[in-house]
Amino acid sequence: MFADGIVSVERLTEGARTLLNQLATARRDVILIRHRLQTIGQLTPSAIADLDRADEEFRLSIERVRAIRDLQVDTVTKINSLEVGEE
Q1: What is the rounded radius of gyration, in angstroms, for the C-alpha atoms of the chain?
Q2: In this model, does residue 83 exceed pLDDT 80?
Q3: Are 55 and 30 within 8 A, CB to CB?
Q4: What is the dihedral of CA 61, 77, 13, 63, to 10 degrees?
Q5: Angle between helices 9-39 and 45-86 (to 10 degrees)
Q6: H/E element holding 78?
Q7: How far lies 48's CA from each of 38, 57, 61, in Å?
Q8: Pick from 10, 45, 47, 74: most CB atoms within 10 A?
């Protein structure tokens, strides 16, 4: 019944994995920038605050993407189990 309109669990997890990898890379870049600024003696209090905020936002985004992925996978799994029950 729903097969044509429901995305597969594999596709959901693949998309989430791609997004999580991009967010993790961005978060690592923030850490690298902080280290480079510190190394050259240019890490100001303002830069520290901005980089801390950016790091926290990326961390929260990663948590949210994981939670959304888990909810989507759970929903698709439940819908698929309903379809099997209808056959």
Answers
A1: 20
A2: no
A3: yes
A4: 20
A5: 170
A6: helix 45-86
A7: 10, 14, 20
A8: 47
